[in-house]
Design a protein that fits this description.
mainly alpha, 11 helices, 2 strands, elongated, 42% helix, single chain
Length: 249
């Protein structure tokens, strides 16, 4: 289980305290500033910067649970949150209690100014991207659980671009046709393939040794079909360039 960061807990507190309840709603909606219709959409606003390796679904579940933990400690809360057996609020963890004490008397704007650096309010533009990422993440999870008939574990590796904004930028710049072979998923699979392409790091992520570096989608990313993406990475320790793979066609 990934440790919840200070920023993660600050976001959870904000979502808990400033959810909106109208006369026609049974449950609160996300804070108005987020302009999100559903809570999953609100959670995804913070996914890119705070996921810490979690899948999209796991991140949403974790943020929802952290939000629940704060609910029962807020005065006049519109949600019950987590309660102990005697119906009193469950004690907050040490880090969560520190966040609660620091933020409880701050205004919505003051807390937003703190957490806004971790947000991307354009997530509605990335709906298809999130759907694709969820599909990849779920399939990878299944592969990791699988074995061959001989009992050997199957090891998979994916360098599929996991930052929604970067993937969106790469597609906007490079389009949806494979930069090696020209394959277009929509042309071959119709509506099922619409908007789909894999995004390849020209310099493999493994070469960054875990360091955070800025990625330029114009020069550092390429769009490839699944076949060409696999061929680029076919041999361990060798990553072909787009031009090198084109010559092998």
């Amino acid at each position: 289980m990934e440790k919840r960061s200070t920023a993660f807990l600050e976001v959870a507190f904000y979502l808990s305290k400033f959810g909106v309840l109208t006369k026609v709603d049974k449950y609160p909606s996300p804070p108005a500033r987020l302009n999100a219709n559903k809570w999953n959409q609100a959670y995804r606003i913070f996914y890119e910067n705070l996921n810490a390796g979690r899948t999209i679904i796991a991140f949403g579940n974790s943020l929802n649970n952290a939000r629940d933990a704060f609910d029962s400690h807020l005065p006049n809360s519109i949600r019950i949150g987590w309660l102990s057996d005697n119906k009193s609020p469950n004690p907050l963890g040490k880090e969560a209690q520190i966040i609660f004490d620091e933020l409880i008397n701050k205004s919505e704007k003051e807390i937003w100014d703190i957490i806004s650096l971790h947000s991307d309010l354009k997530v509605k533009d990335y709906k298809q991207i999130f759907d694709d990422l969820i599909g990849f993440q779920e399939s990878e999870s299944e592969y990791k659980k699988s074995k061959t008939e001989g009992g050997k574990k199957i090891v998979t590796s994916s360098v599929y671009e996991r930052k929604p904004s970067l993937r969106n930028s790469a597609v906007q710049i490079h389009g949806l046709e494979c930069m090696v072979c020209g394959f277009n998923f929509e042309e071959h699979y119709g509506i099922w393939g619409k908007g789909f392409i894999e995004v390849h790091h020209i310099k493999p992520l493994s070469e960054k040794n875990g360091k955070e570096t800025e990625t330029n989608p114009q020069t550092d990313l390429a769009v490839l079909c699944a076949n060409c993406h696999r061929m680029v990475h076919r041999k361990k320790g060798i990553t072909l360039s787009v031009e090198e793979l084109k010559k092998k066609l």
